[in-house]
Amino acid sequence: MVDLSVRIAGVEFPNPVIAASGTYGNGECYTDLYPLSKLGGVSCKGMTIEPKLGNPPPRIAETYSGILNSVGLQNIGVHGFIEYYLPTLKEEGNVIIANVAGATIDDYIAAAEALDASDIDMIELNISCPNVKQGGASWGVSCEGAAAVMSAVRRATKKPLIVKLTPNVTDITSIAKAVEAEGADCISLINTLLGMRIDINSRRPILKNNMGGMSGPAVFPVAVRMVWQCFNAVKIPIIGMGGISTWEDAIEMMLAGATAIQMGTAIFTDPYAPLKVIEGIEEYMDKNGIKSLSEIVGQVKPW
Amino acid sequence: MSFFCGKYPIIERKTLAKGIYSMVADAPELADEAQPGQFANIGVAGFTLRRPISICEIDKENGTLRFVFEVRGKGTAELSRYVEGESLDILGPLGNGFRIPEGKKIIVVGGGIGTPPLLEIARRTSSLCTAILGFRDYSRIILKDEFEEYCSKTVICTDDGSVGVHGVVTTPLAEELKTGEYALVCACGPEPMLKAVIKTCEEHGVACQVSLEQRMGCGVGACVVCSCMTVRNGQEFYSRVCKDGPVFNAEEVKFGG
Description:
The complex is a heterodimer.
Chain A: E1 6-8, E2 11-13, E3 17-19, E4 41-43, E5 60-63, E6 66-69, H1 78-92, E7 95-100, H2 105-116, E8 122-126, H3 137-140, H4 143-156, E9 161-164, H5 172-181, E10 186-189, E11 193-196, E12 198-199, E13 204-205, E14 211-215, H6 220-231, E15 238-240, H7 247-256, E16 260-263, H8 265-269, H9 273-287
Parallel strand pairs in A: 3-4, 3-16, 4-7, 7-8, 8-9, 9-10, 10-15, 15-16
Antiparallel strand pairs in A: 1-2, 5-6, 6-14, 11-14, 12-13
Chain B: E1 4-17, E2 20-26, H1 28-33, E3 39-43, E4 51-59, E5 64-70, H2 74-80, E6 87-94, E7 105-111, H3 116-125, E8 129-135, H4 144-150, E9 153-158, E10 165-166, H5 170-178, E11 182-188, H6 191-204, E12 207-211, E13 227-232, E14 235-240, E15 247-249
Parallel strand pairs in B: 7-8, 7-11, 8-9, 9-10, 11-12
Antiparallel strand pairs in B: 1-2, 1-6, 2-5, 3-4, 3-6, 4-5, 12-15, 13-14
């Protein structure tokens, strides 16, 4: 019997497959198909200290092997999340991760303090949302900004902190190092790549926000590359994401350096995709005599 | 209400008009749950996103669902090439359908490819139902015989006058509403039509439910991309077309938001 469990910052995941923030609501949407407990964890819909309306629609456009989205962090606020969703999540799910974004450092601190007093297992600092003008990615594109958020939040909570990095930077490893130096327990990457599509008849961008974040299988090689670069740059564990849709992708991401993985867009194509990935990983381990996933993390043999 | 996800065999495929197709899938558990006005998010091989398609008819006895859709782009073009014997990858039934009062006279108002989700209402309410259906011209008319079979009265309107009433659906709608016999209007179609229908209903003090569409992601309320502006208790907020709709009470919808 293989052991699918992984451990990040002292938190044990029964398997390495986590639903990515923004693609799984707050865990309530797919329970008609299978229980939340099948997943190693769920990263909840990105939340801010105050409720947020989000961007005007359309908020989604299809691309070759992917999508663009421009939701703009529509959410009911951290307190609403804690009150309405967290109790059920804790009861039905495994590791519950709160994805937190903010316009100011004080926003991040307030959200972290509120969550610190809750039952949440981990906090994922979203310094990489490409769809809001204020905050989000504006923090994550510089070492100074990323470090400032990280150090402030580190003082505000004892909860394990994951920092979610944007790929829309020149050198992602410098950001990874900056947040590691400020006490990040883990980094997750990649958030979406900034993109755009235009309707050639109306000459209007398909997204009302003009630009949006690209995800899906098309971005997978970029994500693998960045995870591998970060694996070689930092010592803290990495949660790899970006276009993972099959178990082969998941193994590839782990070989590049990911301790666990997140899946998002693939769930829209096939809601059962995360379960198929878990099964596939298990069979791969069985077939290759791998007892623990730690045996393959970062084990790519570069030329 | 619960939904399912799986492959369900296509047992009938028909072309209704140029670029408009009808497919019946053998999906007993879905047929058992489905309500008029709900939709399914249908997977198309080679495409990341599923295509939201409204449910046209629900046959609980034979365990089938019927979908009628128009080719709008590459995804629906691919879907239209599926044939009998192949399977539809269906996630559904999804969303909230129309809420039909029992024993009351109602009007269904459809515009173009907005007409299919109204057919199941017509079938269920039959003699209590009046249908007013608008199409661009004679070549775009779909489901006319079926509405005529089920409804006590069916009015066809065309933009060019090639069949039936020359002009918009709100002219015959206003005539019908004047009788004061109707408790509800259910509408599905392009936004300008929905706006005009809602205004006409307001003028006559008749309740109205509208089915909306929006570019959609997951279909189950998780991704929050298919938003539409709604108003409740004076407060404006984005609702999810897939989960909170696609059918909304007209007074809650704020178009262009």
